[in-house]
Write a structure and sequence with these properties.
mainly alpha; two-stranded antiparallel sheet; 8 helices; 40% helix; binds zinc ion
Length: 152
């Protein structure tokens, strides 16, 4: 799936994580972990800030542990909630395996531009290249475009 990014994207490694919802990133910091950034990557590949999702619950953590081959569910089933949460939060892999069911993009609580674009093309049959041509015909630059659409 093509990523749509706005603004300047540098070639350096310093901007690995960009939130697919708000665009928040690790800009300027090198080699920072998702945990430090308070971000997750969902199983579907989306990067999201913790703040966009409900906190995970015990059942969510247990589901996560079930999927991790380095843990045995039998070892944790009798643990208190706090212990389970601590265990999971200290395992870096949960940051990269955030459940799709809790990801606002995957569960469509947040519909991102990629999803809208796909819908426009595939369902509403809007030809994006025709749209591009129309925009170029009507406006000669982005400032003109912004001005033009304000008067609509
Ligand atoms: Zn965000
Ligand atoms: Zn997702």
């Amino acid at each position: 799936m093509a990523k749509i990014r706005t603004g300047f994207v540098s070639n350096s490694n310093s901007s690995n994580y960009v939130c697919d919802i708000c665009g928040n990133s690790d800009e300027g910091s090198y080699d920072i972990s998702l945990r430090e950034l308070k971000m997750y990557q969902c199983v579907g590949g989306h990067y999201i800030c913790e703040s966009h999702t409900e906190p995970l619950e015990r059942a969510d953590y247990i589901e996560f542990i079930k999927k991790c081959d380095h843990w045995d569910v039998n070892d944790i089933i009798s643990m208190e909630d706090e212990e389970i949460i601590e265990l999971c939060e200290n395992d870096y892999s949960i940051r990269y395996n955030f459940p799709k069911t809790n990801c606002p993009i995957c569960n469509l609580k947040h519909i991102n531009d990629d999803t809208i674009l796909t819908y426009l093309q595939q369902v509403l049959k809007i030809d994006i290249n025709t749209v591009r041509k129309q925009i170029r015909t009507k406006y000669s630059n982005l400032d003109e475009f912004k001005e033009g659409i304000q008067n609509k």
